Amino acid sequence: MKLAAVLVAAVAASSSPVQAAAVPGQPAPDFRAADVNGRAVSLADFRGKTVVLEWNNPNCPFVQKHYTSGNMQSLQQRNTGSGVVWLAINSTTDSHSDYMAPAKLATWFADQKATPTAILMDTGGEIGRAYGAKVTPHMYVIDPKGTVIYAGAIDDKRTANPADVKTATNYVAAALADTRAGKPVASATSSAYGCTIKY
Fold first, then answer.
1. pLDDT value, residue 8
2. pLDDT at residue 195 above 70?
3. pTM, entire model
4. pLDDT in tens, 69-85
5. How far apart are CA 65 and CA 79, in angstroms?
6. In terms of C-beta density within 10 A (0-12 exposed, 13-18 middle, 19 or more buried), how is residue 196 classed?
7. Helices (H), the chain
8. Domain range summary for the chain, segments of one domain joined by +
9. CATH code of the domain occupying 25-196
């Protein structure tokens, strides 16, 4: 069954040819997209909850690092269990060899025993461009008021080696811990690393 990849995306300077960017301290661009099951998902659906956005491409060695090690699944499970919404987003265009159809992408996540709240198809790249997502994994944390409070890398070990996860400072985990404690996020931005998103 064919699935429309993105229904409508990104409430952000869509008229501009320049890629936008979701900046900590500013409202998160809203979006509406189809998940791998064909269900429409909107960021606005989760107002009042903390939301994590994870840009994903299963063929990327840097993404594989965090799934092979179990790091991403652990973050997902621990935080969705405490009420955080976790949206995995794939912005790979369907003309690229890295593209996975929704059913295949869903199977990959299931095989990894991953537990995101939803897996979104952004084949047209509208959501990724609205956020300024450049690589996989590029991570964003949005607070319950809809404000971006973290944007950047998952951690400070800029390698594709799963063993490095053990000694890394995990920026996403730290941002979520600060939020739970009612404190401002100490490190709100970092330079994301990974594979270039195949827009």
1. 29
2. yes
3. 0.90
4. 999 999 999 999 999 99
5. 20
6. exposed
7. 61-68, 71-80, 102-111, 126-131, 171-180
8. 25-196
9. 3.40.30.10
